[in-house]
Write a structure and sequence with these properties.
mainly alpha, globular
Length: about 160
């Protein structure tokens, strides 16, 4: 970790905790989708708004594609969350998580004039939790938090990200 000696242990600990928290959130979201009988992304995709709404709604309209999306969503959340939580393949988990969150953001962008037919957990304008978590992950990509606290420390013991 000589490359990151400019960071104190407290700074690396703080960044690692941030990674673990985002990981827990994504992991828990994946677990709940597996535990919810009949869970599907159908409603989420069909209620998409914004300039890519047609793309997301077309995914929901095709049963085969919807099943693939459902599997990718559940397994993606579970594996990305687990990777972030335990610091395993952290860099891959970070970029995969950021991409997934970008899709969530684009499906339901918090833009002026867009109204959704379901309750949201707050009032947003341009910035929502998906964008914030995506920015957190992209910022974390610059720090070897998985090598500080995580299984990457064992796997990549002689390398620095």
């Amino acid at each position: 970790m000589e490359k990151t000696r400019f960071l104190s242990n407290r700074q690396l600990l703080s960044l690692s905790i941030l990674r673990i928290l985002v990981g827990w959130h994504l992991l828990y979201e994946g677990v709940t989708k597996f535990l919810t009988p009949g869970w599907s992304a159908y409603g989420y995709l069909m209620s998409a708004e914004g300039f890519l709404s047609g793309f997301f709604q077309s995914m929901a309209s095709d049963a085969t594609i919807l099943e693939i999306v459902n599997l990718l969503n559940k397994w993606g959340l579970l594996l990305i969350g687990l990777g972030l939580f335990i610091g395993l393949l952290t860099r891959l988990s970070i970029y995969s998580g950021a991409l997934l969150l970008l899709f969530y953001y684009l499906a339901h962008p918090p833009f002026i004039g867009i109204e959704y037919g379901f309750l949201t957990e707050g009032n947003y304008l341009l910035v929502d939790k998906n964008l914030i978590e995506m920015a957190v992950l992209l910022a974390l990509s610059f720090f070897p938090t998985g090598q500080y606290i995580g299984l990457d420390r064992i796997i990549f013991k002689n390398q620095v990200n």
